[in-house]
Amino acid sequence: MDIAETSMDIVRQFVPDETLADRVRQKAVHSMGDIEFQHLIRFTGEDDLGDDEDAPVRAGAKAVLAEANVVTDITMAQAGITGRGHDCEKHKAIGHGAELAAETGMTRTAAGVLELDKRGVYDGSIATVGNAPTAAFALADCIENGTRPAVVVATPVGFVKAEESRQRIREVSEAYGVPAITNVGRRGGSGLAAALTNELIHVAKDVRTGDLELERTAEERSADEVES
pTM of the prediction? Predict the structure, then answer.
């Protein structure tokens, strides 16, 4: 814990510490070991306070407090999400939809997303995609067809359709108002997705203990920091 806190103290020297979105940027930098990665994180969608960059973090924290499902694409992302500080049930797409994958030739993760969506698991959930671009594409299709996760965290990694899948998530996020946290570029991965999801849990914990007021916009938080 001392090492982790020292690392975060160093990160805060290079990443702003004013808004909830800044907390996510800090976690991204800490996870990736790259200060410049803060500039690659994107916040889209809206909540009941508006479409500012804190909206996906507020929505995610509220989902944690409401004990929503946390749904990942693969086992690695699921394993990286803490089991402490929340009572959310964790699910993973991989391992579901085997028959659909065999019949259609789609990937197992994409089929798993569609199968869980058919069961209603994604509605109101924290939907985390850390590895498979096809899972992100499938989730985007589900959103387009009416599914409404509380928040999407999508950081699939790689050279084949990874960037495009995250762009697709941003497009449906903007079109349908679904809050989403994504990144640009080829990097990403399950470790990053889990870290960002964990920060939503940490924000919710701070709300629960009275250390954080959630019903404020990013602009209001920034203004308070300037005044102080």
Answer: 0.94
Neighbours of 59 (CB within 10 A): 26
Q: What is the pLDDT of residues 186-216, one digit of tens each?
A: 999 999 999 999 999 999 999 999 999 999 9
Q: How far is Cα 165 from Cα 189, in angstroms, rounded to an integer?
A: 13
Residues 81, 125 contacting (CB under 8 angstroms): no
Residues 98, 129: Cα–Cα separation, whole Å:
19
CB contact at 8 A, 47 and 25: no
Q: What is the pLDDT of residues 22-48, one digit of tens each?
A: 999 999 999 999 999 999 999 999 999
CA gap 154, 136 in Å, rounded: 7
Taking alpha carbons only, the member of 54, 218, 74, 220 closest to residue 155 is: 74
DSSP code per residue over 12-75: HTTS--SSHHHHHHHHHHHHHT-GGGGGGEEEE--BTTBSSTTHHHHHHHHHHHTT--EEESSH
Q: How far is 16 from 72, CA to CA, in rounded Å?
A: 29
